[in-house]
Fold:
Amino acid sequence: MQCQTVLPGAECTFWSKQGCIFEGNSCQLVVEACQGCDRIADGTIGPVCSVAPSPKQKWKSGLCNFATHQKVEIQSVETKVNPLKASKKAAAGKK
Structure:
């Protein structure tokens, strides 16, 4: 359904026939960590997230999974090779 209060005309999963069913009956303002994200929209109450009604909750456990301005660094983990098993595989001609 489409939001009728904060982001009029935008698709919202929390809007029902009875109105907004989200906690507090409205989306919440973005937090400081959201600054720079592409998903921020100007609502009738101020800047709000277009995909998450509670940005504070999304940042509670660390990095928001919807953040477009933050990149996650993936660390490669090198596996340890047992030299005895490696020599046996080499002797057998396996890779």
In short: The CA atoms of residues 30 and 48 lie 5 Å apart. The chain has a mean pLDDT of 84.
